Amino acid sequence: MPSALVSPGTVFTLAVGLAAALAYLSFMWRALQRAIRVRDEADVGEDRFQRSFIGAVVAVIGSASAIAAYGLAPSFLYLGPALALLSTVAVAFCLRQEGVDG
Fold this sequence. Notes:
The chain is an all-alpha fold. The chain has three helices and no strands. Helix 1 (about 10-35) runs parallel beside helix 3 and helix 2 runs antiparallel to helix 3 (about 80-100). The radius of gyration is 18 Å and the shape is flat.
């Protein structure tokens, strides 16, 4: 019977996930504050996030690949959580850009 309640990999994933979640919430708060501050300003109509759609397509293809890869070997099961963490970081980065622009 193992003496540890969780594996080191699980602890690492939880720590990285917690850090990503805190960054995400911080950047979301800044972006919301900026949106409230500039809500009455005229919109110049420029799309600063042209790569957002491409990022979404890459995320869908990555998710499908992670699901398909699990059929190749059980160790590929960890691709799903890794992609979820990377997606959170990518969205947090976009929120950071939104919060500091202006």
